Amino acid sequence: MTESPAPIPHVAARRGAEARHESAARSMFDRIAPTYDLLNRLMSAGIDRRWRARAVAEVAGAPPGPVLDLCAGTMDLTAALARLRPADRIVAVDFAPAMLDAGRNKAPRAEIVVADAAALPFENASFSTVVCGFGIRNLADPLAGAREVLRVLRPGGVFVTLELFRPARPLTRAFHRAYASFVLPALGGWLSGDRPAYDYLARSMAGFLTRREYERLLLTAGFAAIRGTDLTLGVASIVRAEVAP
Q1: Is 6 helix (H, G, I), strand (E, B) or coil?
Q2: What span, in angstroms and rounded, lies between the C-alpha atoms of 80 and 68?
C-alpha cells in the first residue's frame, strides 16, 4: 500500500471578487446536488460516461501512488479511479459538501475532503496523479488552480483535465452556444427547479477558455508534455500534462 497524502492546516485568505465567486458557486452546487447525476445523464444523453472513461484511461500509464480527484462533485470519477487503482489511496476533494455527500456511496474507500481547489490542504508532492472533471471552469482563477495542482503533484506526476472548453470549430461553437444559451438553462432549470443555477452553468461554459488556451495556461503554470484530445467533435476535451521529473 502506498503512503497516504498528509493534510496540513489551512485557512483561506482570498478576498473580494474571487471569494464571492466561490461562495456563489458553492451554494449553487449544493442546491442542485440531489438532481445532478440524473441531469448529467439526461442532458448529455449518457455521453458524459464515455467522456469520463476516456479521462480515466489517461491515468492508466501514470506513476503509482496517491490519486486526487479534484472538483470531485458526486464522485463518478472517484469511483472509476478507485477501480483502476485498487492499491492506491484515492482522495476526493470538492468545495460543495452536498455534492460529495450525494456521491460518497460510489467509492466507499475514498477519503473525502471539503476544500478549495486553489488552496489545497495537502503537503507539497503528495500525489502521483490528479484528475479534474468539469471543475476547472468553475474556479475564479484557473491559473492559480493549475499552480496548486502542480504544487501537490510529485515529480513525474500526471494531471488529467476533462472539461467543456469553449469550442474552436465553427459548427461545434454554434451548437455549444445554442445549447448553453437555451437548452441547458431551460431543461436544467425545469428538472431541478433551480433555473439560476443552470443559468450560471451556461455562463461558465460560454465564457471559458478554449482547449488551446488552457494548454498554454498549463505551460505557464509550469507543466510539461501537454497533450490535448477533443471528444465528440470538440464538445468536451481531455488535456493531459506532466510534472517534470
Answers
A1: coil
A2: 12
Burial pattern 25-51, b for ≥16 Cβ within 10 A else e, equals bbebbbbbbebbbebbeebbeeebeeb
Consecutive H or E run containing 157: strand 153-163
Q: Go through 165-196 and write b for each residue having 16 or more CB atoms within 10 A of its CB, e for each that does not.
A: bbbeeeebeebbeebbeeebbeebbeebebee
Q: String of b and e for 107-145 (b: at least 16 CB within 10 Å)?
A: beebbbbebbbbebbbeeebbbbbbbbbbbbbbbbbebb
- With bands split at pLDDT 50, 70 and 90, how would you rate the model's confidence at 33? confident
Dihedral sign of CA atoms 28, 78, 76, 81 in order: positive
pLDDT, residue 237, reads: 95
Residue 230 reports pLDDT greater than 90: yes
pLDDT digits (tens, 9 = 90+) for 162-212: 998 988 776 666 766 666 665 666 666 666 677 776 666 666 666 789 999
- Domains belonging to the chain, first-starting first, are 16-166+211-242 (3.40.50.150)
How many whole angstroms separate alpha carbon 175 and alpha carbon 19?
32
The distance from CA 75 to its chain's CA centroid, rounded to whole angstroms, is 10
3-state secondary structure of 206: helix
State the Cα–Cα distance between residues 65 and 128, nearest whole angstrom. Answer: 5
Query: Stretch 5-26: mean pLDDT, rounded?
Result: 51
Q: What's the whole-model pTM score? A: 0.85
How far is 193 from 237, CA to CA, in rounded Å?
Answer: 29
Cross-strand pairs, 231:
236
